[in-house]
Write a structure and sequence with these properties.
Oligomer: single chain
Structural class: mainly alpha
CATH superfamily: MFS general substrate transporter like domains
Number of strands: 0
Length: 412
């Protein structure tokens, strides 16, 4: 633990920047936007189904834009790139608050999903993975605390604000806060970094000989083995959280009890984010890749077979363990496999897969429900997804291990 404190003291400025970016991404996350669902439905005459389709479409569009926009972090000055993204968040929030028609609401949601969930989180994770080498896992873990911090603080603050202000005013406060608070804070932190980061090498020791070539990523077997592993968490999380109230009622639990149990999720996610950092530095992201989905599988199995409402706490704690490890494992994995020269481009493509999973989940699950499937099928399907994804991760480790053996055998 003393090593973590020394690490925090040595790199506090750049770590604070990563945490602020992760926290700010909350304004584009589902948990925050969903707080305004009743107001969107009432003011724009939408049903739950209408908004689900609109939201899934907006998320899908943001995912399609992310690879191109996210790749610019490799070329643009980081201050300029960060400023553009934060201004984009402010414009999107203002668009939502002043939308005269559902089309403008959709445009604003696309902006929130792209700049918030997409690019701000992308900046946080890319900078941590790029600027650190030996302590890359710790850096990702510390910056990743911004996600559970936002989940713990912002819903409470937003709910309180909605007691006294119209929903449009809350989004206007978000827009103004992005310009007045987040932008100067982020640029101020970047101005005070002064090169105080680890000198990350251009490629990791485990990278293949052509790994620095930008197009290697798109042709490598490891990339395609990693895709289902990165899609699985966002797909399963979105399904479980979107239907958390009817799922609780299906189990015979009070939905408010599940809401209380979400504190276990936030705490578990925060602890997991810190713990996984040290494990990555010790065992590598490749070595941990087959294991980080296992708590999610255990959570789904527990929820499926258990009956006691007390199960909500361990269920959400297990989900929090995978959520805390998810983005940290992924970011470190790409740096280990392909180096950091094109990390922004690689992460943006990988993040778009994750967002595609989040977009596809409500559409696919909703369609299956219309065909007569129920929550039993949804949970068993989630278990199957976790099992198949874990198998794919094991194949990636085996493939990478074989490559290293061949390189050693031929002296390369």
């Amino acid at each position: 633990m003393s090593g973590y404190f020394r690490f925090l003291a040595s790199y506090r400025t750049i770590l604070s920047f990563g945490l602020v970016m992760a926290l700010s991404s909350s304004f584009g996350q589902t948990f925050f936007i969903s707080l305004f669902l009743p107001y969107f439905m009432a003011d724009f005459d939408l049903t739950k189904g209408d908004f689900g389709i609109l939201y899934g479409g907006c998320t899908l569009l943001s995912a399609l834009c992310l690879p191109r926009l996210g790749s610019h972090i490799d070329r643009l000055d980081l201050k300029r790139y960060t400023a553009f993204t934060i201004v984009g968040l402010a414009v999107a929030a203002l668009t939502v608050s002043t939308a005269p028609h559902v089309a403008f609401l959709a445009l604003g949601i696309v902006g929130l999903r792209l700049s918030g969930q997409g690019l701000l989180g992308h900046i946080s994770q890319t900078v941590m993975a790029r600027e650190f080498a030996a302590s890359r896992g710790k850096a990702l873990g510390v910056a990743g605390l911004g996600y559970p911090l936002g989940e713990a603080v912002l819903p409470l603050a937003c709910t309180l604000g909605l007691q006294f202000l119209p929903w449009t005013a809350v989004w206007q406060i978000v827009s103004a806060g992005a310009i007045i608070l987040i932008l100067p804070l982020a640029l101020g932190l970047l101005s005070n970094v002064d090169g105080q980061t680890e000198a990350a090498p251009p490629a990791s020791a485990t990278a293949a000989p052509q790994a620095l070539l930008e197009n290697t990523f798109g042709r490598d077997l490891n990339t395609y083995l990693a895709i289902p592993v990165l899609l699985a968490p966002s797909f399963v999380f979105t399904g479980l959280f979107l239907y958390q109230v009817p799922l609780a009622e299906w189990k015979g639990w009070d939905p408010s009890w599940v809401a209380v149990a979400f504190s276990a999720f936030a705490v578990s996610r925060a602890l997991s984010s810190i713990a996984i950092g040290g494990l990555i530095d010790r065992f590598s992201a490749v070595g941990l890749f087959p294991f980080f989905l296992m708590p999610l599988g255990a959570a789904v199995a527990l929820f499926y077979w258990a009956s006691s409402p007390l199960t909500a706490f361990p269920y959400l704690m297990l989900i929090g363990m995978t959520a805390g490890a998810n983005s940290n494992i992924g970011s470190a994995l790409w740096a280990e496999l392909y180096g950091v020269e094109h990390l922004g481009r690689i992460r943006s493509v990988a993040s778009s897969w994750s967002i595609l999973g989040a977009a596809a989940s409500p559409i696919l699950i909703g369609g299956l429900f219309r065909l007569g499937f129920d929550f039993n099928h949804m949970l068993l399907g989630s278990l199957a997804i976790v099992a198949l994804s874990t198998t794919s991760a094991l194949l990636l480790v085996m493939n990478q291990t074989q490559r290293l053996r061949l390189r050693r055998a031929f002296g390369r």
